[in-house]
């Protein structure tokens, strides 16, 4: 059992003001694997005060100096990479090979992309031609509160902490209480890198406690939040009184439009993508819409792909899926699978209960429903488990209308080999991100959505801008 009760405040590991133990559950065994403490108001206050005191000096450092700390953090992260992969595998059940390549890899990927973006970032630049002395300056917004979820722990933490450091902000991080071990390790990296005391602070806690204390705190200028749409709304309301900036990365219900002229790997790729991280990704392609002439073939490939998907112990090497995070997610997913059955969707893979041979752990059967209709609960709600809903469509217009008919708008996907249609639909699909034919969005591209998915733009230059105020200057002397 790991004991990690302390918080990182003002450059020191600090005991909580009041002991409130919280057991971190290993989802593969349903047993506690660590104990942390949940913070109280006194801990939040101490962390915010430390960040506030550190702000003037940190904000005034040269960008190159802040960048040097980030480069040091990257070096330490790389040296302690295996510890990070193991922490995430333990706390949220990511299979160890996936934790190494994707979960831990997301951290180094983002830090590297931010370093590149920071080197090109123009902190002060002229407004334009013909307006002499008019300048635009990007300045740190101030003390920021960072609240992260459990599903991609280091992905979320690096997308917030690193640009905040680069921008010159000081901060309080509250990671998910479900998966805090990786963040505690990350705080060790920051400490080891010698980041000045008070610049980065970590307080563990839950949403109603530390989460809402940060959201309402008058000394915090901005909350950067990733998590559920429910909590995003609560934070926006809580933050209104102090008029802070609220940047939200929320849920999704991505559509994947598969046309009959798609490449032969499109359906398999879509199913695998849906199942990746045991379906616990906000940008998962959870609604597959297939052109009717290709529908039967697509169902055949999808069922075959699900049949080939193994589920098992996250400590073992391999490409299998791990468990979902906890009991309540397991039960929520079971309830949604049940609703799919009751509402008349056709199960072509998986279903209720655990996969064969697994009696303990929050394991879910990789599940695929065919013949879904847009009004079904499984087509409307984010399931956050390895459950794919498939339906046929007849025309491009119909497919786009169904894809866009959701409160969410994070990522949509498109599979067609027609270049004209590709570009037409990349623009017509309503989302913060749209990806065709399994391609990448590119290093340093912003991540974020529209509508109920929140409107943050995290990553690269846009991610740094989020932590800045834009100052409009007149009378600058050349
Ligand atoms: P969650 O909203 O329950 O919790 C996220 C974080 O918010 C945790 O740290 C939690 O303690 C805190 N929190 C909860 N209620 C709060 C409140 N009222 N005030 C302040 N803080 C509060 O989400 P989760 O279950 O940890 O994560 C899953 C959700 O995150 C999914 O909906 C998923 O789609 C979303 N997500 C979105 C993105 C994205 O970039 N759009 C990325 C990953 C996950």
TrEMBL record:
GO MF: aldehyde dehydrogenase (NAD+) activity
Pfam families found in the cross-reference section: Aldedh (PF00171)
PROSITE patterns named among the record's database cross-references: ALDEHYDE_DEHYDR_CYS (PS00070)
The protein's Enzyme Commission number: 1.2.1.3
EC class: oxidoreductase
Catalytic activity: an aldehyde + NAD(+) + H2O = a carboxylate + NADH + 2 H(+)
Record carries keyword Oxidoreductase: yes
UniProt KW Oxidoreductase keyword: yes
Domain Aldehyde dehydrogenase span(s) in chain numbering: 13-473
Keywords: Oxidoreductase
Recorded family membership: Belongs to the aldehyde dehydrogenase family.
Protein's recorded name: aldehyde dehydrogenase (NAD(+))
Organism of derivation: Paenirhodobacter hankyongi
Organism ancestry: Bacteria, Pseudomonadati, Pseudomonadota, Alphaproteobacteria, Rhodobacterales
């Amino acid at each position: 059992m790991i004991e990690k009760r302390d918080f990182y405040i003002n450059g020191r590991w600090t005991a909580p003001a009041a002991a409130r133990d919280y057991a971190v559950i290993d989802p593969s065994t349903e047993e506690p694997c660590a104990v942390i403490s949940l913070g109280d108001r006194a801990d939040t206050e101490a962390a915010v005060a430390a960040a506030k005191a550190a702000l003037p000096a940190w904000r005034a450092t040269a960008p190159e100096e802040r960048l040097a700390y980030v480069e040091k953090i990257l070096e330490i992260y790389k040296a302690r990479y295996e510890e990070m992969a193991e922490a995430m595998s333990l706390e949220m059940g990511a299979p160890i090979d996936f934790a190494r390549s994707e979960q831990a890899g997301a951290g180094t990927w983002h830090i590297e992309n931010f370093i590149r973006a920071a080197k090109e970032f123009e902190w002060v630049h002229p407004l334009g031609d013909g307006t002499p002395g008019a300048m635009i300056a990007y300045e740190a917004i101030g003390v920021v509160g960072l609240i992260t979820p459990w599903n991609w722990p280091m992905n979320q933490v690096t997308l917030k902490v690193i640009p905040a450091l680069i921008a010159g902000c000081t901060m309080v991080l509250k990671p998910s209480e479900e998966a805090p071990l990786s963040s505690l390790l990350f705080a060790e990296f920051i400490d080891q890198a010698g980041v000045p005391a008070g610049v980065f602070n970590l307080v563990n806690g839950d949403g109603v406690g530390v989460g809402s204390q940060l959201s309402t705190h008058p000394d915090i200028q901005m909350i950067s939040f990733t998590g559920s749409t429910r909590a995003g709304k609560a934070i926006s309301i809580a933050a209104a009184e102090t008029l802070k900036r609220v940047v939200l990365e929320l849920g999704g219900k991505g559509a994947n439009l598969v046309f009959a002229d798609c490449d032969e790997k499109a359906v398999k790729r879509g199913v695998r993508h849906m199942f990746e991280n045991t379906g616990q990704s906000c940008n998962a392609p959870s609604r597959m819409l297939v052109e009717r002439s290709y529908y039967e073939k697509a169902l055949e490939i999808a069922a075959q792909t699900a049949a080939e998907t193994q589920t098992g112990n996250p400590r073992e090497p391999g490409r299998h899926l791990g468990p979902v995070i906890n009991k309540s997610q397991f039960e929520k997913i079971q309830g949604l699978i049940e609703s799919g059955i009751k509402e008349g969707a056709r199960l072509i893979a998986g279903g209720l209960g655990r996969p064969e041979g697994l009696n303990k752990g929050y394991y879910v059967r990789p599940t695929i429903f065919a013949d879904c209709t847009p009004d079904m609960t499984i087509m409307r709600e984010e399931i956050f488990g390895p459950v794919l809903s498939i339906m046929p469509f007849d025309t491009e217009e119909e497919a786009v209308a169904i894809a866009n008919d959701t409160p969410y708008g994070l990522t949509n996907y498109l599979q067609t080999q027609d270049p004209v249609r590709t570009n037409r639909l990349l623009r017509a699909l309503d989302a913060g991100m749209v990806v065709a034919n399994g391609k990448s969005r590119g290093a340093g591209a912003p991540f974020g959505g529209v509508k109920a998915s929140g409107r943050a733009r995290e990553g690269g230059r846009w991610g740094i801008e989020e932590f800045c105020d834009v100052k409009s200057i007149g009378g600058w002397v050349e």
